[in-house]
Design a protein that fits this description.
- The chain folds into 4 domains: 36 residues, no CATH class; 178 residues, 3-Layer(aba) Sandwich (Rossmann fold), CATH 3.40.50; 65 residues, Orthogonal Bundle (Helicase, Ruva Protein, domain 3), CATH 1.10.8; 87 residues, Arc Repressor Mutant, subunit A (Orthogonal Bundle), CATH 1.10.10.
- It has 18 helices and 10 strands.
- β3, α9 and β4 form a beta-alpha-beta unit.
- It is 49% helix and 10% strand.
- It has 439 residues and is an alpha/beta fold.
- The strands form 3 sheets. A 5-stranded parallel beta sheet has the order 2-3-4-1-5, with helices on both faces. Strands 8-10-9 form a 3-stranded antiparallel beta sheet. A two-stranded parallel ribbon has the order 6-7.
- Bound molecules: adenosine-5'-diphosphate and magnesium ion (MG).
- The site of magnesium ion has 4 residues, from α5.
- The site of adenosine-5'-diphosphate (ADP) has 22 residues, from α5 and α13.
Length: 439
């Protein structure tokens, strides 16, 4: 008998203390824990029998209705984005372009790609979605992508019935060892009777260098040969060249698509869908405030929607009020601040003390509406002065190759934090302007 089965057997007759307390936790209060808080929702997402009230149920539903830390993949929870989705589909279907999707973290890139995956899948595309990371390796990635394409679609290879039945794929035709972009595009150029969409998300997370260069080379090769494979590359960047810096020569085959901030109507729809799903009612002025704070960032809207909903449930109400949103805002500001570096917070505080806070807010506002970028070209002299102040405080840094033209915040969470803090000041009656460091 091994250790595990011994434990189980022991538990059935005379439970040892560890097993017994686990059993106790399932059926009522754990022994000796009369005063301790307890889990109300099982890991299986069901309420503990006899424990959950209606409010607990609502709380569990809220977690499903607003998922700020996960992309949306259900069509029923996906709000707005009609224009950008239409553009994306047109580029893929009519123009047969490769697409580079870029924008700030939290703007909704992954959610958009999840929905695109579903729609392409419905249209019988073979969709290969991959999230890039530190260890992304070209060979492994494309061997696995080729492994998702049945041999059936290879134009000059007539697989025998048994090969089709045994699930042969294009990966079987690749040589052993490392494969090159050239070999992959050769293989992909033989595809017929289907179309393949290769989606590489979080491209900014792959360390630059070999991997990025190989992807760029593959895109070049694929567009030279007009294959039935199209790439959609997504990541955090201020523009197309910043994300895929090695492929300027084939720009005519590539569409750079910046994901815009959501409109007020789209944020309203996001809250509306969440509200429908969890059964809470969000007052119009609560939605209006969420819209104003979120600045069109779905991540912030979703976070506020969730916190405000929990606030209402905690009050024993099913109606979410504007005051629930102002309370949620405090929580979200505190959470955001904890993720920022002391260096940024102190730099912002120094500017506030020096009476330069309005300039900093101006920079944050511009960055939040332009994929994180503050562009000096064509901007006002006020913005130029604000930039000078931001650079001097080392909160801002130059970006890109055009010297002295484009800038961004050194730390990406800073603009949204500054923005939310300024709104908190404006909406809370009797509010004392907090310093950027929260003091
Ligand atoms: N169209 C949308 N409808 C509803 N919620 C959305 C939408 N787009 C994004 N979100 C919400 O915003 C959060 C951030 O979106 P995500 O797609 O992960 O952004 P990104 O990939 O750009 O960082 C998600 O957790 C999701 O809850
Ligand atoms: Mg993402």
């Amino acid at each position: 008998m091994n250790w595990f089965s011994k434990k189980l057997k022991g538990a059935a007759s005379a439970p040892d203390p560890i097993v017994r307390s686990a059993i106790g936790g399932m059926h009522g209060k754990a022994e000796g824990s009369a005063e301790l808080p307890f889990f109300k929702v099982l890991a299986t997402d069901q309420l503990h029998r006899g424990r959950g009230s209606e409010a607990d149920k609502a709380r569990a539903q809220l977690r499903e209705a607003f998922t700020p830390s996960q992309p949306v993949s259900r069509i029923s929870m996906f709000a707005g984005r009609e224009a950008v989705l239409t553009r994306l589909i047109r580029a893929i279907e009519d123009q047969q372009l490769h697409v580079v999707v870029y924008g700030e973290r939290g703007i909704g890139k992954t959610s958009l790609l999840r929905i695109l995956t579903r729609l392409a899948d419905e249209a019988k595309y073979i969709v290969c979605y991959t999230s890039c990371g530190e260890n992304s390796n070209f060979s492994d990635m494309f061997r696995s992508i080729a492994g998702a394409i049945p041999m059936l679609f290879h134009s000059d290879y007539a697989p025998t019935q048994s090969e089709i039945e045994s699930g042969g794929t294009l990966a079987d035709l690749l040589p052993a060892g490392e494969v090159t972009p050239h070999q992959i595009s050769d293989l992909f150029s033989k595809l017929s009777s289907t179309r393949v969409l290769v989606i590489l998300d979080e491209f900014d997370r792959s360390p630059s260098g070999a991997f990025r260069r190989m992807i760029a080379e593959l895109v070049k090769n694929l567009s030279d040969r007009s294959t039935r494979v199209q790439m959609v590359i997504a990541g955090v960047a201020g523009n197309l060249a910043e994300l895929v810096e090695h492929i300027p020569s084939v720009r005519r085959n590539i569409l750079g698509l910046q994901i815009p901030n959501m409109t007020a109507a789209e944020v309203g729809e996001l809250i509306g869908r969440g509200s429908e799903s969890c059964g809470l009612r969000y007052d119009d002025d609560a939605i209006e405030l969420i819209t104003r704070i979120s600045c069109g960032l779905p991540y912030i809207a979703s976070l506020l929607g969730q916190h405000a909903g929990i606030g209402a449930v905690d009050r024993g109400s099913t109606q979410v009020l504007r005051s629930d949103v102002t309370n949620a805002l405090k929580l979200v500001i505190d959470e955001t601040r904890q993720r920022l570096s002391d260096r940024s917070l102190r730099a912002a505080k120094r500017l506030q003390v020096a009476g330069k806070y309005a300039e900093l807010l101006k920079l944050a506002d511009v960055a939040l509406h332009h994929a994180g970028i503050v562009d000096l070209v064509g901007s006002s002299t006020e913005l130029g002065e604000a930039l000078r102040i931001g650079l001097e405080a080392q909160l801002i840094e130059p970006v890109g190759e055009e010297v002295g033209e484009r800038f961004r915040f050194v730390e990406e969470g800073v603009p949204v934090y500054l923005w939310m803090q300024s709104i908190e000041g404006a909406v809370n009656p009797g509010y004392q302007q907090r310093s950027p460091s929260g003091a």
